[in-house]
Amino acid sequence: MPRNCLSLAGFCALAIALQASAHHSHGNYDLSESMPLEGTVREVHLLNPHSWIYLEVAGDAGAPAIWALEAAFPRWLERNGIEPDDVQPGDPIRVRCHQLRDGGKGCLLGYVTPLHGDPERGHGIEKEWD
Known about the structure:
With 130 residues, the chain is α+β, with helices and mostly antiparallel strands. The protein has a single domain (28-128), classed as CATH 2.40.50.140. The chain has two helices and six strands, in the order αβββαβββ. The chain has helices spanning 2-23, 74-79; strands at 35-45, 51-57, 65-71, 92-99, 106-114, 127-128. It has a five-stranded mixed beta barrel. The chain starts with a helix and ends with a strand.
């Protein structure tokens, strides 16, 4: 009987680990290349399980496009030295990210460099967001 309980506990632990792994998959993104983007922050959402930055980027025909940039959860960002006010709506930033596989206007954030001119909020300092 105890052997069955241990087997069941091991199976449950494995199932939970696989679910967590699948939830945080980066399979939607082309991880083989990193692309640069520069634009103006429109929105910042520091949420669990993923944070988001919506970035307005100049388009090819002059019309701006909004890019959805997926980042890590807030606690991870905080542990990496990122403060909630480092990047705010209206701020210019430069990012390096992995674009969606389908070519859409979405990216998995790698690094963010604020260009807002405020050294107290990390102007010019590149930090990892994923």
